[in-house]
Design goal:
CATH topology of one domain: Rossmann fold
Strand order of the largest sheet: 1-2-3-4
Structural class: alpha/beta
CATH architecture of one domain: 3-Layer(aba) Sandwich
Distance between the termini: 33 Å
Number of strands: 4
Strand content: 5-15%
Largest sheet: 4 strands, parallel
């Protein structure tokens, strides 16, 4: 993460033409580096976790995108929630989310993570969507979605990262600045 003094300087000079040019160049360099080295935390809870592992394996190979699955939330900047989130797992999910450093992103994979799933929607023990617990950036529907769908979602995360700017306001406790709220990407 970029130090706050640099962000303060960028916000101070973002109105001048020379400042805009410099900020654009710095944004492109920094965001390309960040987008090409996303470290996801796999939070696999059900059958979608098998497809997530298949995506990380040799056939689809997430390493070619610079993504290496991390075992610790303190090393990760993307959380992939794959599967059914129960009421008992919800506090654990929220705790792991708050342990991740800023900026952090969340990807909901599978119908159960997106909306509670078609089998468990009316169950008293299932959370009807991960976005009730943590803010989700990209949704991937399917039961379970194919590895190609997960790769498309990860490329959407790359696009979101490339839109960041050092002139943006700082992140505060998982809340992004008002003008950085992206439309939630959905596709079939």
């Amino acid at each position: 993460m970029i130090d706050e003094p640099i962000r303060r300087i960028a916000r101070k000079y973002r109105e001048s033409p020379a400042g805009q040019s410099l900020i654009k160049i710095v944004d492109k360099v920094l965001n390309t580096g960040r987008a090409c080295s996303v470290w996801p935390l796999g939070f696999g809870l059900a059958c979608c976790a098998i497809e997530m592992m298949a995506t990380a394996a040799s056939r689809f190979d997430l390493d070619r995108f610079g993504m290496i699955m991390r075992p610790s939330p303190r090393q990760a900047d993307l959380m992939i929630v794959a599967g059914t989130v129960t009421m008992k797992m919800a506090p654990v999910l929220e705790q792991l989310y708050h342990q991740m450093p800023e900026p952090k992103y969340v990807l909901a994979m599978g119908s159960c993570a997106v909306s509670g799933g078609r089998f468990y929607r009316d169950a008293y023990s299932v959370v009807n969507g991960v976005d009730r617990i943590v803010p989700v950036d990209v949704y991937i529907p399917g039961c379970p979605p194919r590895p190609e769908g997960l790769i498309k979602g990860l490329l959407d995360i790359h696009d979101i990262i490339r839109r960041d700017s050092i002139a943006d306001a700082p992140y505060t406790e998982g809340k992004r600045p008002e003008y950085r709220q992206y439309p939630r990407l959905r596709y079939d």
